[in-house]
Amino acid sequence: MKLTFLGTGTSTGVPLLGCHCSTCRSQDPHDQRSRSSVLLEFDSRVVVIDTTPDFRQQGLRVGMERLDAVVFTHTHADHVFGLDDVRVFNLRQNHPIPIYADSRSLESIRRIFTYIFEGTYPAGGIPRLDPRLIDGPFDLWGMKMVPLPAFHGALPVLGFRFGRAAYVTDFSVIPEATLAQLEGLDVLILAALRHVPHPTHSTVEQSLKLVERLRPRRAFFTHIAHELGHEATNATLPHNVRLAYDGLTLELEEGG
To answer: What is the Cβ-side half-sphere exposure of residue 62, based on CA atoms within 13 angstroms?
Structure first.
C-alpha cells in the first residue's frame, strides 16, 4: 500500500493570505501546505480521506487518474469543499463513487451539497455519489478500515486505522478506547497544529506525548499551521518523528 499526503496544512493553508511571517515567505517547498488529506493506493484501487478545497490541484500534482472511494473524517469546510471535483472520475469510470462517513457527517454533506442529492439539478454535470454509513469497521476491496472516534473540541470526528498505519487529524482529545486501537503501529499520523495551545487542536507537544505513549515505529505530523517552519521544527523532533509535507509518499504494510 502507498500513502501520499495530498495536503498537510491547517484550514487556512500555508502561506496564509496576507501574512508575511518567515514560514509564509519561505522558499522551502515543504512550507507550502495545502489543506490536509491523504491518498491511499492498493491493489489498483485509489481512496482519498477527505476532499479539501484544494482537491483538484492536489490530484493534478500527484497525477490522479482514478478514484474508487472517499472516506470522511468530519465535515468542516477544509475537509469537504472539494467534493464536487470528484465528478470527473464519474465520467472516467462511469459509475457512482462511494463516500463513507458517520451519520452526522452524511447529514451535513447532504445539506452542504443539496444540489447533488435532491435530484432536481437541471444541467447535469454533478457528482454521482453512493453514500455509505460508517457504523463500525468496514471493508474497502479487502482493506479493513477501522474508524477511530476522537473529539475536535466538542465535535465528534473520526480517524482511521488501516493495516499497521493510522491517520487522526483535527483532534484535541483521543479517548482511551481509541488509544488502545493505536498500539502496535508502523506509522502513526497525527495532527500537530503549533506549539501554542488551541481549544480544538492538538499541539506539537501534545502529539509528541501520544507518540511516546503509543510507540509507533514512525510518526508524522500533519494539519500544520504557519507557526511551524518545516526545517526548524524537524530539527527539534525525535529521530522517528517528522513533519509531513505535501507530496510525501510512504510505503505501508497492508496487514496487521
So the answer is: 25
Beta strands in 32-154 (DSSP E): 37-42, 45-49, 69-71, 97-101, 129-133, 138-140, 143-152
End-to-end CA, the chain: 13
How does residue 121 score in pLDDT terms, banded at 50, 70 and 90? confident
Pairing of strands 143-152, 138-140: antiparallel
Cβ within 8 Å of residue 73, ≥6 positions away: 49, 50, 79, 157, 158, 159, 160, 169, 170
CATH of 2-244, one of 3.60.15.10, 1.10.287.1080, 3.10.50.40, 1.10.150.530: 3.60.15.10
Written as one letter, the residue type at 121 is Y
State the pTM of this model: 0.96
Q: What is the pLDDT of residues 30-77, one digit of tens each?
A: 999 999 999 999 999 999 999 999 999 999 999 999 999 999 999 999
Closest CA to 136 of 181, 171, 168: 181
